[in-house]
Amino acid sequence: MRIGVHSFIVLLFLVTVGVQGFRTVRLGSGSMTSFSINEQAQAQAQATGESFSIPGIPAPFQSISEEIVFKHVTTDKARVEAYCLSDLHADSIRNQEWVRDHCVRPGWKDDDVYTVMIVPGDIGTEIESLGMVFSVLAANYDAVVYCVGNHECWRRGTKAGGKATEPEKRTATTNRMARNSVDKVLEVLQCARDKGVHVGPLRVTQSRSAYKGLTVMPLQSWYHCGWDKEPDMTDPFLLAVEDAVPFSRKWGDFVSCLWTDLVEHREFASTSTDSLKLPLAFASLNTPFLGDAAFMETIADDTVLSFSHFLPRQELCPEKRFLLEPNLAKVIGSDPLEQQVRELKPHLHMFGHTHIPIDLTLDGVRYLQWPLGYQRESDKQCGPVFAGGPLRVYDSDLRVDSEGGLPAESGVPTGMESETVTWTKYYRENARDPTNMTLAPWVQKRLQSYEGFVNSKKKDVAAKNKLSVDPLT
User: Fold this and answer.
1) Residue 155 carries which DSSP code?
2) Of all helices (H) and strands (E), which one includes residue 46?
3) Which positions ≥6 away from 324 have C-beta within 8 Å?
4) Cα 211-212-214 angle, rounded to 5 deg
5) Helix ranges, 321-406 (H)
6) Cβ of 391: how many Cβ atoms within 10 Å?
7) Half-sphere exposure of 431 (CA within 13 A, CB side)
8) Whether the model pTM is above 0.70
9) What secondary structure letter does DSSP report for 41?
10) Could you give the 3-state DSSP secondary structure of residue 143?
11) Of 65-79, 127-141, 156-170, 455-469, minimum mean pLDDT range
12) Is 24 exposed, middle or buried (0-12, 13-18, 19+ CB in 10 A)?
């Protein structure tokens, strides 16, 4: 995720050895010739907590939906493990080196283990960086499953000459800018496909096990400001800073994304206009699976691990008083996504975007984020990820028999390192209180760095007021 100055955040290749079966299924068309939603009805559903009516796949997303397919693998390996890592941000050379060093199959790992890597978005913006990461992951894991993040939707970084660490320089005639964000997403998904990475649901079953399988379910998503239901901060100096340096001018997506034929840019690039067009368009990419009775019946007894880039629930981000940019809450989550997670009822849902490691259980669903983040965050909130590497989130050996001979456990481990990080421990010990308007000390300190902007703004306003009273003649 990017916000002007990044520190604002407080924050497959299918290996065929041992694989007996491989099946690709394209489910449901859900197509529409145009994209229109009943904004009034959707706003009412949002206000009352009712279910959203998610429309069919909009015409601009049809080519994207064709890349998202369900695949079923049957392996004769004795054990299946899944790992998670989000927000690799591999446009940074240091992060590229980290991926090469840490996202590798350990030499001690038993060859009789089928490994799955789950990546909830934001690998990078440059297509060369994405291709490099896809190649490394696909070479070290039996399967890789991925969903797009906001950085992959930035128009810059389309394919051209050069290599990942030395991409072609932009000139007046080679700016390496995609025509729009839809084209960029399609290019990213095609790059993933070419490297053997899954971008749709993956089901893994074991020929030597009586247990049902593991289903890994990517949920495509996008944020909208109305997802933020908690009170805005009222600190006078914070408001003065927002007036002098508006958040909307600093948020990278508002400059770098263009959603032609989906939403007007003024609707999208706003923290006050709550447009559901993009969140519903992305959610529509998931409905061919979630709305398919046969698919849902197939995975009914599986361990289901779902993931998205954005947040389904606001409890998964610290309250605004803790955030260096309180308006971050307006660009991180999606109500349609939350609805789809509730309908799916996964054993574990993983996400990314905020670069805040956390592990909480809410209304019977466990949620976690395990982000690598930016280089400067490696000794801060992302330190445990930087030091520990990908997080193991599933182990088929943990699915023990109950008296009825069926798995009594989901295979999702307990005692994971994500349970020991700062914000997990904080919210397990403290109740959430969004009405508390006292800014955290680190937020107050950060605001002081904007004092010059605030004073300059005051002088400009005073000069304009004086001019209006005593105009030049």
Assistant:
1) S
2) helix 39-48
3) 7, 8, 9, 10, 11, 442, 443, 446
4) 115
5) 335-344, 383-388
6) 23
7) 3
8) yes
9) H
10) strand
11) 156-170
12) exposed
